[in-house]
Amino acid sequence: MTKKYLLNIGFWLKFIGIILFFYLIYKVGWEETFESIKKISIIHIIIAVFILWLAFYLKSIRWKIISNSYGIPLVHYKAFKVFFIGLFLANITPGRLGDFGRLLYIKDELPTQKIGWSSLIMDRLFDLISLLFFSLLALFYYQFNFDILKLPNNYKGLVFLFIGVISFFLFIYGFRGKFNRIIKPWRRAFNSHNLGWSKSILSFVITCLSMIMIYGIFNYVAWAMDIEIDHLGLFLGTFVLGILTLLPVTVLGIGVRETSLIFIFQLYDLSAEDAIALSLIIFILQLISFIPGAILFYLSPIRLKDLRQMK
């Protein structure tokens, strides 16, 4: 009952982003937004899609490196195929859980299920670390240029935050024995890789290159639309946007992405309709980029409910 209740909450939370999106469109206007969308040509759309595909291809290479380090004999083509399928599934399932469907395609190559899950978690960690790294740079950049973070008049919030953090760690410490029994086998599986420094650095470099391509698409599209904006500010700001779209209040970033871009555009005294138009074009590019994964999934379908049996 509780699990079903939580799933229902998660489902309805997604509508927050959609409601926010339609509110922004209502305030700005469809006609103004559509006029902005028409600023970009088809050739730029095609180029942008190929840039995204190249970025995803680089990520599939990283996944192969990580998988091989865990003793999973993943070959180049299969890594490419399964990664693109996982990318498609991740964006049509709640919480991007469909991405873990990759394990169903390589289950015969997995030493253990825990090793398989660990390899995917490691793959996700590289993305998260890179995202946090660029987001931190963005915070410094925007603070230096726009002084967006103000010191509070009182420190009650900080005191409550400090108390909350201390309480959390005391709770973990109090139940450390039970947590250790649960975490120990997973920690052993997670640490069973042989990445080493050289492969770790290579994986991080590949991750950063792919991230630069994925988030640099915002800059490319803005340039193609003749939007005069500080491209470094836009580029760094999109990484913060990337973190915000991880919140469970949106589907494919709808609503959250538009709101974030409007905020960035307002800092540079640019129009909200251009911000929404840019966001919608990115959304269309996102959908087009999933087509290879959708085709490959259609040719080799799996049942996502089988994920529940993978423990």
Question: How would you characterize this protein structure?
Answer:
- There is one protein chain.
- The chain is an all-alpha fold and 311 residues long.
- 74% of the residues lie in helices and 0% in strands.
- It contains 14 helices and no strands.
- The protein has helices at residues 2-13, 15-28, 30-37, 42-69, 76-90, 102-105, 113-146, 156-174, 176-190, 196-224, 231-244, 256-267, 272-289, 291-299.
- The radius of gyration is 21 Å and the shape is globular.
- Residues 1-7 have low confidence and may be disordered.
Q: What's the count of strands?
A: 0
List segments where confidence is low: pLDDT < 50 over at least 5 consecutive residues: 1-7
Report helical residue fraction.
over 70%
* Number of H/I helices: 14
User: Looking at the chains present, what oligomeric state does this protein adopt?
Assistant: single chain
The major beta sheet can be summarized as: none
Q: What percent of residues are in strands?
A: under 5%
Structural class: mainly alpha
Based on CA atoms alone, the radius of gyration comes out at 21 Å
Q: Termini distance?
A: 22 Å
- Basic shape: globular
Mean pLDDT: 82
The sequence of SSEs as H and E is: HHHHHHHHHHHHHH
Search tags:
single chain; 311 residues; mainly alpha; 14 helices; 74% helix; globular; disordered N terminus
Please describe the topology of this protein.
Layout: H1 2-13, H2 15-28, H3 30-37, H4 42-69, H5 76-90, H6 102-105, H7 113-146, H8 156-174, H9 176-190, H10 196-224, H11 231-244, H12 256-267, H13 272-289, H14 291-299
Helix pairs in contact: 3-13, 4-5, 4-7, 4-10, 4-13, 5-14, 7-9, 7-10, 7-11, 10-11, 10-13, 11-12, 12-13
